């Protein structure tokens, strides 16, 4: 099941509410790997492997701006995650991921695509 937050402007302030959707019983498309495209899900930060984390550093001011924005209005764009054999790999969204870590948030909204071990090479 994926959760989406839709914000609708009102005269005084923004109101938000949650809309839930599911593409299958497990929320990640078919187990055969065919058909279904990416789905949006909340994943625990500690379940996402970041293979590029060692090779790059994030812009501290951009991370701080994202922390301010996420605190105020929430994450607006999910990070892209590749799921291979039940393991999640994050290759984009490094600043958003670090902002969530520094805010102490346990999960992050992800656009999950299924892949194979060949995809990781």
UniProtKB/TrEMBL annotation:
<dbReference type="GO" id="GO:0005524">
    <property type="term" value="F:ATP binding"/>
</dbReference>
<feature type="domain" description="ParB-like N-terminal">
    <location>
        <begin position="41"/>
        <end position="120"/>
    </location>
</feature>
<keyword id="KW-0547">Nucleotide-binding</keyword>
<keyword id="KW-1015">Disulfide bond</keyword>
<keyword id="KW-0049">Antioxidant</keyword>
<dbReference type="InterPro" id="IPR036086">
    <property type="entry name" value="ParB/Sulfiredoxin_sf"/>
</dbReference>
<dbReference type="GO" id="GO:0032542">
    <property type="term" value="F:sulfiredoxin activity"/>
</dbReference>
<keyword id="KW-0560">Oxidoreductase</keyword>
<comment type="similarity">
    <text>Belongs to the sulfiredoxin family.</text>
</comment>
<protein>
    <recommendedName>
        <fullName>sulfiredoxin</fullName>
        <ecNumber>1.8.98.2</ecNumber>
    </recommendedName>
</protein>
<dbReference type="GO" id="GO:0034599">
    <property type="term" value="P:cellular response to oxidative stress"/>
</dbReference>
<dbReference type="Pfam" id="PF02195">
    <property type="entry name" value="ParB_N"/>
</dbReference>
<dbReference type="InterPro" id="IPR003115">
    <property type="entry name" value="ParB_N"/>
</dbReference>
<keyword id="KW-0067">ATP-binding</keyword>
<dbReference type="GO" id="GO:0005737">
    <property type="term" value="C:cytoplasm"/>
</dbReference>
<dbReference type="InterPro" id="IPR016692">
    <property type="entry name" value="Sulfiredoxin"/>
</dbReference>
């Amino acid at each position: 099941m994926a959760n989406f937050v839709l914000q609708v402007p009102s005269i005084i302030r923004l109101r938000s509410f949650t809309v839930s959707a599911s593409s299958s019983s497990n929320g990640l498309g078919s187990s055969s790997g065919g058909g279904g495209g990416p789905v949006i899900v909340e994943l625990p930060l500690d379940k996402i492997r970041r293979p590029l984390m060692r090779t790059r550093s994030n812009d501290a001011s951009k991370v701080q701006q994202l922390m301010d924005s996420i605190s105020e209005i929430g994450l607006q764009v999910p990070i892209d995650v590749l799921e291979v054999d039940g393991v999640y790999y994050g290759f984009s969204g490094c600043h958003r991921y670090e902002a969530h870590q520094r805010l102490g948030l346990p999960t992050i909204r992800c656009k999950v695509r299924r892949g194979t071990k060949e995809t990781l090479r």
